[in-house]
Amino acid sequence: MQVDEAVTGDDTPCREDLHKHLDFIQAVVTRMSAASTSTKSWLLPVVTATYGYGMTQNAWSVIALGLGAVLLFMFLDAHYLDREKAYRALYDAVARNKGIPLFSLDPREVQRCGQVPENQHDITADEVDDQATGAVDTPEKGPRFQFLNDWKPDTSVWKSWAITPFYGSLLLVGLILLVRVCLMT
Fold it and tell me: How distant, in Å, are the alpha carbons of 32, 71, 85, 156, 166 from that of 159?
């Protein structure tokens, strides 16, 4: 038996592979965090320009455009935060050796491994998804709508300190400006 095999005799990953797997997951978490920060930094000049121009020109439509930008960027940022939370859960599951396949970067593995008994880990991922969600072949639960479910952030994300105070204050300012401009015209 060779000493430099990737796994030991009992099918557990070696320490080096586990560390590399955790590094890969941490890189994804870092990218999601950077994307969230970038979203906020791109929004500020857009909001400043639209709100400022709308106020100086008494153009309610420009302020409404700024409000739309806030909503769009808020949704994107919430999505990044939701994905970041999912990858943090994956990181935790890998670090605690919860049965995540080696080098898997699919955060759904956390749910799959947590809901499937140890003696049934050989069923397919699609079967696990169907069992976990109780999926039946209805149009609302079909593969066409899975994209929408993947993009819908969890409700806890919307209540996060990174979303509600930042975007809520920008929305509130925009609404106040919109009402002010509408009353002036």
Answer: 18, 15, 14, 5, 11
Report CA-CA distances (Å) from 172 to 51, 66, 156: 12, 12, 21
Give the helix ranges, DSSP H, for the chain.
15-56, 60-95, 108-115, 125-133, 143-151, 155-158, 164-184
- Alpha carbon distance 101, 185 (integer Å): 62
Contact between 84 and 29 under an 8 Å Cβ cutoff? The reply is: yes
- Rounded to whole angstroms, the Cα distance separating 66 from 46 reads 7
Q: Stretch 121-131: mean pLDDT, rounded?
A: 47
pTM of the predicted model as reported, rounded to 2 decimal places: 0.71
Q: Is the pLDDT of residue 142 over 90?
A: no
Cα–Cα distance for residue pair 5/2, rounded to 1 Å: 6
Mean pLDDT of 125-144: 50
User: Residue 13 pairs with which residues in a beta bridge?
Assistant: 7
Q: Could you tell me if 163 and 81 are in contact, meaning their C-beta atoms sit under 8 angstroms apart?
A: yes
Dist CA 128 CA 135 (whole Å): 10
Distance, CA of 84 to CA of 132 (rounded, Å): 22
